[in-house]
Amino acid sequence: MNKGYERGVNMHADVAVIGVGTMGSMALWQLAKRGISVLGFEQYGIGNDRSAAGGESRLFRTAYMEGQEYVPLLQEARHLWKELESEAGTTLLTLNGGLMIGDPNTEVMKNVLKSIEAFNLEHEILAGKYAEQRYPQHRLFSEDIMILDKNAGFLRPELAVISAADRAENLGAKIHRYTKVKDIHSDKLGVTITTDKEEYRVGKVLITTGPWTGKFLSGFKTVYEARRLVLTWFTAKDIDMFKPDRFPIFARMRKGFRLTGTPTLDGTMVKASNTKDPVYVKEPANLNRDVNVDELRTVSDAVRELIPGLKPDPVRASVYMDSYSPDDHSVIGSVPGMENVLIASGFSGHGFKMSPVIGKITTELLIDGKTSYPINHLSPNRFFQNVSST
Ligand SMILES: Cc1cc2nc3c(=O)[nH]c(=O)nc-3n(C[C@H](O)[C@H](O)[C@H](O)COP(=O)(O)OP(=O)(O)OC[C@H]3O[C@@H](n4cnc5c(N)ncnc54)[C@H](O)[C@@H]3O)c2cc1C
To answer: How far is 94 from 78, CA to CA, in rounded Å?
Structure first.
């Protein structure tokens, strides 16, 4: 066991990670890399599609519309994705570029430009006829520009979670699959974890339960809300136009919807989804996985208007959910009133790309008591008074 903790007797591990989805798998990987004895608890299997991860791809962007304070985290995440790829011997991140498309006077497009300026990010700005010729797949309106983020692309979410969890297990982590954590009780010396099978005692706990967080920690109900998102896929008139070398990932802001998408990954379908205004989910275990006609019609209208080379009727649709915070930024820090318990949740529809660095940050907070990364904007103090970020 790691030295330096004041701890009780008969501990099962130094640290336990509750929820081995996106963030939990990355934290397990990073903790195990540091030689920490660590347990993971996951209510489903590893790489499951019942929560926030799944659906074939996730966008990776560096010129960040959610705010320039994320850029250092994303740059480090890019290195860590490459590290995980090399350890796992697989491809997880493909950097085929990313187009942010919209009116440059909107807040999100301004944020993209601010990120580029502040961190001197590799990019191109395209407008008018030149933009249309270069990327004829997108229909542009007179007010629109395209910003090509050269350090953008797509991730493979299922494989990423599995790769991180596999690496963690190879390095000594133990993962309890199909094991639901019912309750935790913390004291000065450690934390007792009650699962639907057995009880465990560890030094510290990291909670990465994603959309279930409000359910799992009732004190956090007001901070984290589960919301439902629908992903949709379309066929193309000429699929070659939508291959990764010709069709960068994109995020497009337009009144009424936010269309995001990836090139074809299977050679037959292109993912384009409306990710604006995800719907509140009262009970994550009963997530409604049916997609209603209005949802299909809205995204179909958007595709017909904006990407004329796609056939506008969705051929595949699937439902996921994420944990949202009131300001759409995650919360990483101590759980108020619970000693030795840290939380990382509320990634609000944009956390996948940064998950390896979140794994590293949470590892530093748990083991060193502080982190070397700039995460003031993610502090729990936004929602709770006098909570330390360690
Ligand atoms: C449709 C959709 C599209 C997205 N697109 C992008 C994108 O393009 N780019 C991007 O960067 N981000 C994107 N995101 C956001 C990103 O996927 C999430 O922010 C991220 O996956 C959240 O990770 P998490 O670890 O918090 O949650 P999850 O990955 O859901 O992990 C939580 C895990 O905890 C487990 N769990 C919960 N409660 C318990 C319990 N009591 N006991 C044991 N286990 C438990 C769950 O089963 C689950 O496996 C998208 C999200 C969605 C839903």
So the answer is: 10
Q: Are 23 and 210 in contact (CB under 8 A)?
A: yes
Average pLDDT over residues 54-71: 97
206: left (phi over 0), alpha (psi -120 to 50) or beta: beta
- From 17, 18, 20, 22, the mutation candidate for ligand 1 (largest count of ligand atoms within 8 A of CB) is 22
Name which residue sits closest to atom 3 of ligand 1, judged by CA.
Answer: 349
Q: How far is the CA of 104 from the centre of ligand 1 (A)?
A: 31
Query: How far is the C-alpha of 203 from the C-alpha of 192, rounded, in Å?
Result: 9
Give yes or no for a contact between 309 and 237, defined as CB atoms under 8 angstroms apart. yes
| Domains of the chain, each with CATH number or no CATH | 13-52+158-224+327-382 (3.50.50.60), 94-153+225-320 (3.30.9.10)
CA distance 271 to 59: 11
d(CA 202, CA 214): 23
Measure the CA–CA gap between 149 and 174, rounded to whole angstroms.
39
Of residues 252 and 214, the one with the higher pLDDT is 252
Lowest-pLDDT range of 151-155, 218-222, 323-327? 218-222
